[in-house]
Amino acid sequence: MLKVPESRQRMVMMSSEIITRLSFLDRDPVYQHEKPYEIISGIAPSGWQSNCKFSSVANIAIKDCRKSRSSFTLDSCGFEYVDWPASSDFDFNVFQSQNRFDAAGLVERYLLETMALAQARFCAEKVICIDWRVRWHQSECC
Prior knowledge:
Blueprint: E1 3-5, E2 12-14, E3 17-25, E4 38-40, E5 48-50, E6 54-63, H1 74-77, H2 93-96, H3 100-121
Antiparallel strand pairs: 1-3, 2-3, 3-6, 4-5
């Protein structure tokens, strides 16, 4: 199930967990014959095309697992933490500038490096990035 935090939501911190509202991809019968998709493009007239339908669920507990990174392995949990210093200087100010080509170049370099890391880690013949997001830490949340 795809879990997507709602934008600009209010989160309540309780000890080492956050209680929040999340959106989940619905089990729509249309997905039996048409896979869920999102196309995000600055080129397309609408900029955003999707057949995804979501439902919002309140009171979801999210625990901070960063202090126990070694407990999470790909085989047991479906994900793992990888510490990896990117060679690109990921300066978030470039995303707020008017020059979208600077931001696009920065993201492209980062994604190419990330795909190379995944290809080496999994001995993959080919790696394709199908989705990415840039997120900023919001100090009022955490």
